[in-house]
User: What shape does this take?
Amino acid sequence: MDSALLEMRNITKEFPGVKALNGVNLTVRRGTVHALMGENGAGKSTLMKCLFGIYHRDSGTVTLDGKQVEFKSAKEALENGVAMVHQELNQALTRSVQDNLWLGRYPKKFGVMVSESEMKKRTEEIFKTLNVTVNPKAIMSTLPVSQRQMVEIAKAVSYDSKIIVFDEPTSSLTETEVEHLFRIINMLRDKGCGIIYISHKMEEILRISDDVTIMRDGQWIATRPASELTMDEIIKLMVGRELTNRFPPKTNKPEDVILDVQHLKGKYTRLKDATFQLRKGEILGIAGLDGSGRTEVLENLFGVMTKESGTITLHGKQIKNRSPKESIKNGFALLTEERRATGIFGIRDIKDNTVISSLNDYLIGGICLSDKKMVEKTDWGIKAMHIKTPTQKTQIRSLSGGNQQKVIIARWLLTKPEVLLLDEPTRGIDVGAKYEIYQLIIDLANEGKGVIMVSSEMPELLGVCDRILVMSGGQVAGEVDAKNTSQEEILTLAAKYV
Ligand SMILES: Nc1ncnc2c1ncn2[C@@H]1O[C@H](COP(=O)(O)OP(=O)(O)OP(=O)(O)O)[C@@H](O)[C@H]1O
Ligand SMILES: [Mg+2]
Assistant: This one.
C-alpha cells in the first residue's frame, strides 16, 4: 500500500501580520504515520486546521482519496473521514465523558435518540476496543488532564476516519498512556489509516513515524523517510543551522542552604515523605516515574495542596506556605505542568498575560499602573523567550501553542521569586527554544535564586541541574550529583519503592 491518501499542495494562509503558511506540501500515504515537525510557530497546527475546516486556506489544493476537497467546518471534515485531536483541549467540562464523546452526533435508532444507557454501552464498547479505563459517566472536570486527553483520543478514533491528526497528543500523558496511544496508532496504521503526528519529542518521532515532513517559518523544508533521518539532522532542518550543544554551559555556583524541607507529607496526595535542602544559586532536579510524587513535592511546597505534616524553613525561619498567595509573599513561584489548561487568559493580549502576576511592580503612587513599565517588561519577555508574535497587543490565543507557554514562563520569571519551582518547564517547547529556557534557568541561579525543577526528560535533568532528587512511591529514594551519575543509577533509584 503505497498510494497517496492525502495530498496537500501549495497551501497558503495569511493572518493579519503573519504569513503562517507559504506554499506548503504534504503527502500522506495509506497505512503510514507521518510526522510533522518544526519549531514553535512554524505553522504545523495551522496547516492541520486548514485541512480540518477550522481555517480556510487562501490558496492551494487538498486531495483526499483522489477527490479534491475543501471542508467548510470541522463537522464536514469529520463526516468525510478526517478527525483531529487538538493541541488545546476544548471539552465540555461540566458534562459527562459520554456526552463529550457523542456531543453533536448522539446515536439514533429508528430515527430517535438512543437512551442514556445505550449511549453508555456504546461508549464502553469503544473504550474496550481501545483499552481505555475511564468511567463514561464521570464528569469531565473531575478527571486528570491525561485522562481527558485519552477521552479526546478515543473520540477522534471513534469516527472511523481515514485520516487522523494528533497535534501534540502526548504532552500531558503519562508514560504508560503514551505506550497505550502508540498501540492504538499502530492498530490504526494496520487498518490502512493515514496518521499525521505532531510532537516536539524527538525520540517519539523516530519511534512511531514512517515519514517525516519538516516545516520552518511557514514553509515546507523537507519530506524524508524516518529511517533515513537522525535526530541531529531533524534538528538542523528545523532550526536551519547546526545546533551543536543542546545545553548551555553551567556557570552557576551553589552557595549556602536557603531552604530546608523536612518530612513534607501531603494530606490528600501520594506524597509520603520528602526531605531535602536547596542552596542559593542551585538548580535541584526532581526525577521519578509518573505517580512517584514529583509534582506533589512542588504543589505541597507551594500550598496548592494541603500539607499533612512537615516543616519548611527559609533562611532559618520557619514558614507555612498554606496557600499560593502566602507562598508568593514568601518569595516562591510555581510554573505548573498544565499551564495551558490553567494559566492562560485567552482573549487578553500578551502584555496582560505577562504582567498579571507582578502588577505590584508597576504601581505608581500605589494607585495606578505604569503602562510604560508593563510594556518594557513584556518586551523583555518577548525577547528573552523568543516569543513569535506580531505585537504585544496580540491576543494570546492567536499564538502557537509553544509560544503561549513561553508567555506564561515569562510571567512567573517577572515575579522575581527567590525560590522558583518549575514543573516540566520545556514541555511542548521546540529544541531551539529549550536551549533559551535552560540558559534563563542557569542565569537565574547565577543571580542567586534557588531553582527546583521537575522533569521527565532525563537528559534535561542531567544537562541543567546540580543535584537530582529521585522520588519513588511518594518518598525520596535518593539524591545524586548530576555530574557523577547516570540514567541507569537514577532509574534504579526511581524503582526502589514501586
Ligand atoms: N488565529 C490566528 N490569528 C493570528 N495568527 C495566528 C492564528 N493562528 C496561528 N497564528 C500564527 O500563525 C503562526 C503559526 O502558528 P501555529 O500554531 O500553526 O504553529 P505551530 O507550528 O503549531 O507551533 P507550536 O509548536 O508552538 O504549536 C504563528 O506565528 C501564530 O502566531
Ligand atoms: Mg501547534
Observations:
- The radius of gyration is 24 Å.
